[in-house]
Amino acid sequence: MKLILGIELGSTRIKAVLCDENGKVLASGSHEWENSFVGGHWSYPLEKVKLGLRASYKELVRNYGKPLTKLDAIGISAMMHGYLAFDREWQLLAPFRTWRDTTTAEAANELTEDFGFNIPQRWSVAHFYQAVLNEEKHVKKVAHLTTLAGYVHYLLTGKNVLGIGDASGMFPLKGDKYDSLMLAKFNAKLWSKGIMSDMDDILPQIMLAGENAGTLTDEGAKYLDPTGTLKAGTIFCPPEGDMGTGMVATNSVVPKTANVSSGTSANLTVILEKPLKNFYREIDIIATPDGHPAALVHTNNCTTEINEWVNLFSEVAELCGAKIEKGELFTKLFNKSLESDKTVGGLSGYNYLAGEPLANTVSGAPLIMRKPEGDLNLANFMQMQIYSAISALSLGMDILSSEGVKVDSVNAHGGFYKTEFIGQNATSAVLNAPVTVMQNAGEGGAWGIALLARYALNNGVSLQDYLDGIFKHTEKKTVMADEKEKAKCKAFLENYKRNLSVEQLASQVN
């Protein structure tokens, strides 16, 4: 039996899974962590990366029940985008800035206009150029830019490489390379500001799914497992971002398939049949792990606001002498939404704890509005919260629909779908497509990168054929919203879009 390790550094949890060659999960371990808003930026201290990796791996080994001395393949995944800048000796030059950071509007706007290609605020090149515009002292020392997955991969293998999916969120691609014309334009901008760097040298080498991206070094083995039990030599697949592992974990890598990941943020990735006619500020063009173009609709916010309200309801229950387990409370409140009326009580909700570029809001400003004639009750309130969590996706889906992009199926994963049916049904109504949740969807990106690690051992077939074999016997449930649910969702979205200007103003005041 082969032993495959997948690790993903997510926004709230670092998770490790151990799988066999068929993708069966043998053991898992995790470590909770959280970003913080420090010095005007959303960030994680890098010392917590080591602590979190070791803690999740240690728990995995304990749950496996026997020592792990040798693994057959390893894969690393993490939150896509962001800014990790290092000098030639790989010393960090500025605190890690995450995908959630919305401080790069000036750079993103200028680069988008110059490139004729959408550069979102989250992208690494936007972060780097904003630092240049801000005249931050470290920019002239930058020798390496990478993502969190690329950084951890480097620590474990010594190789400065990146999977094509993750790389496509750093700088625009053309085929399986960084776009040479845009590199030339960007270099000229750097040189005009006295920074004599070559962006092509600064960015990691791009690799495709199935390629050997290095092996575990002695130093890497000790970094992950300080007990010294784990030995060096294990093959690594190219490190990937959470968008790529989400595609893999839901078997959504061919045109007209899509996947949606709904947790701290929400992301809809649609694999394209052909390039879009125009570029849009609301749509990222990224790549699947094997290099096919995909359209990404990314929201900075999803379930955090629901979590806050459930915490409040829990406090109310305790105040009244009731003690209820949080998971049970979530289930009860989600199911209560089924009793909501056809207008959702005239409620509009914006879950924007952070700025939401999709909706053109510059900072976080959670907001609830209601019509005076509407019915404010628990069912309508929860339905509003559930729709609100994923409604920003509809802003991007409207654009893709105008381009003639068709979606035959959507595979969903993430914490939003833990309560059976409710999140699925809402997502189907918002996206107007059948939504499938697979039995193993809860394993998420750690499992997705483990599948890619397994593929690196034997890639004699296409990624799609390989994944079809993995998912052949997977249990799944598909939901298509009925006409009543679609009409209810339509009423909510009409209010949501009509009142969006109020939220935009609130974000400016905030």
Overall mean confidence score, pLDDT: 94
Termini gap: 56 Å
Main β sheet profile? 7 strands, mixed
Shape: globular
Strand arrangement across the biggest beta sheet = 17-18-16-15-21-22-23
Can you tell me the residue ranges where pLDDT is under 50 for at least 5 consecutive residues?
none
Structural class: alpha/beta
Q: What is the overall number of helices?
A: 17
- Cα gyration radius (Å): 22 Å
State the main characteristics.
510 residues; 7-stranded mixed beta sheet; 17 helices; 23 strands; 38% helix
Brief overview, please?
The chain has 510 residues and is α/β, with parallel strands linked by helices. The protein has helices at 47-64, 105-115, 124-133, 148-157, 164-167, 180-192, 199-202, 218-224, 242-249, 304-319, 326-336, 378-402, 422-431, 444-457, 463-471, 483-498, 500-509; strands at residues 4-9, 13-19, 25-32, 36-38, 41-43, 73-78, 84-86, 144-146, 161-163, 173-174, 177-178, 205-207, 235-236, 240-241, 257-262, 266-271, 284-287, 293-299, 347-350, 367-370, 409-413, 435-438, 476-479. A hairpin with a 3-residue loop joins β15 and β16 (266-271).
